[in-house]
Structures are given as structure tokens and as C-alpha cells.
TrEMBL record:
Protein name: IcmT/TraK family protein
Transmembrane segments: 12-32, 38-62
Provenance organism: Scandinavium lactucae
UniProt superkingdom: Bacteria
InterPro entries: IcmT-like (IPR047756)
Protein keywords: Membrane, Transmembrane, Transmembrane helix
């Protein structure tokens, strides 16, 4: 069975396991070209790479933040029904 190569189109683009989106942080270094900014961006990329090694990618962290901000799951019943009939 031949697997279509178009199925890999949904994966995230990575260089050495680091998402390419994080390399865009180096554009901040071009804005303020200081050695401290270069080190800060590099340490941030290394930090996210370590988190990615443990399964906490940027997408997972974003989804968890949104879930935390959203709060409890909705039950689909109005407050008055939950208060008086359950």
C-alpha cells in the first residue's frame, strides 16, 4: 500500500526539533541588536525545546491556557434548571 506524501502536509515545520515559528524571535534581535537580546532569545528557544521534549509543545500550552481561561465545561442547561431540578 502506497502512502500519499500529501498526508504529511499538516505537520508543523521544524528544524532540529524546534518549531520554525520560534526562530522568528531572532527578528527581535535584529530590532535591538544586543548580545543580551541574542542570549535571551536563544535561551527561550532552548526552554521551549526542552518543554517540547516532554510533550508540552507551544500548541499544547496554548490549548491549556485557553482551557484555563474558559473555565469549567458547560453543561448545556440553564442555571435555573440546574438549581431547581437537579
Amino acid at each position: 500500500m502506497k502512502i500519499c506524501e500529501w498526508r504529511d502536509a499538516g505537520r508543523r515545520l521544524e528544524i532540529a526539533g524546534i518549531p520554525v515559528v520560534l526562530f522568528a524571535l531572532y527578528f527581535a534581535w535584529f530590532q535591538w541588536p544586543e548580545t543580551s537580546t541574542l542570549w535571551a532569545v536563544t535561551l527561550l528557544i532552548i526552554f521551549f525545546r526542552i518543554l517540547s521534549f516532554f510533550g508540552f509543545t507551544i500548541t499544547v500550552l496554548w490549548q491549556r491556557l485557553i482551557s484555563l481561561l474558559r473555565g469549567r465545561q458547560l453543561t448545556g442547561r440553564p442555571w435555573w434548571y440546574r438549581r431547581f431540578f437537579e
